[in-house]
Amino acid sequence: MNATPRWLTAEQKAAWDSFIRMQEKLIGRLARHVQADSGMSAADYIVLAKLTEAGGRMRFMDLAKLVEWEKSRMSHQVGRMAKRGLVAKEECPDDGRGAFIVATPAGHKAIEDAAPVHVEHVRRLFVEALTQDELDTLARISNRVVAHLEMQPD
Amino acid sequence: MNATPRWLTAEQKAAWDSFIRMQEKLIGRLARHVQADSGMSAADYIVLAKLTEAGGRMRFMDLAKLVEWEKSRMSHQVGRMAKRGLVAKEECPDDGRGAFIVATPAGHKAIEDAAPVHVEHVRRLFVEALTQDELDTLARISNRVVAHLEMQPD
DNA sequence: CCACTCTAGTTGACACATCAACTTTCTGCC
DNA sequence: GGCAGAAAGTTGATGTGTCAACTAGAGTGG
Hints:
The structure is a homodimer. The first copy, chain A, is mainly α. Chain A has one domain (about 40-150): Arc Repressor Mutant, subunit A, CATH 1.10.10. Chain A has six helices and three strands. In chain A, helix 1 (about 10-40) packs across helix 5 (about 105-125). The longest helix of chain A has 29 residues, at about 10-40. Chains A, B: One of its GO terms (molecular function) is DNA-binding transcription factor activity.
């Protein structure tokens, strides 16, 4: 209970505001590009990308852990993607509860078509905005924040 | 049409991946905190924060521009917030199409209660992970990316 | 073999975001 | 004045994310 809350300094607030603004604009723009170019959402893209990178067939939970999503989110997402024919669910013989998620041929084709275009957008909108030094610095800062997050309670 | 797409270099991809990962974890965690601490979504928070900062009464479109949202998003959001008593809509006398959005007393109280807690989370999870130098660097990098984005087509 | 607990995954309700289509009012121009 | 077009907002459809509750099979100790 502190009656006079400690606000951020001007520099801290500036950094926070700039970061938030950049992040929203950049992510939003890329999401719109993916959608427009390939008809996939950013969620479709990342799931399909990670799944095919890993061989196109994974246990549900392994996939969820790989993209760091909770199972509910993944379940809904996979359900939608299955309905659209990008992936299929298969029963798991050794574990009656389990499921394999498999990229369909259409799924493979979708990600193969989408990936180069997406990378081009990442390059154009993000990579080319910065020098390699700045990219390295940003990576270092990001990793530091993640490490810090993982040390903090909850 | 390039048959051999130019992928990112390892360093570029590392920077991109680290940034995305950090951003998702950090934003997600803060959103969950706002929700848990105050019962407001991150969207509620930002709208209410900007609105009260600006005096608690704004034209709909000015508010939308201030938070850089499209009008549809703002309309839905304001509708939900009005239903929950955080803001109210008022007719605009000089412009028959227009509307004022006003923070209700409950809205003012909600943001006043939520803001210090939220700032504390930003400090704990983000500011304290980094030195002031790193914060400055991140701000500079962010501003550079935004400037770059604003120069790019679409 | 039985009970207890854990893990895998689903489901339903609800809040949120986006897109496109729509209504109403204003403004500029003839 | 009158009309074309732009601006202010709304609306509905659809996809997405979160939470909590749920089912069902697997593992473990007695």
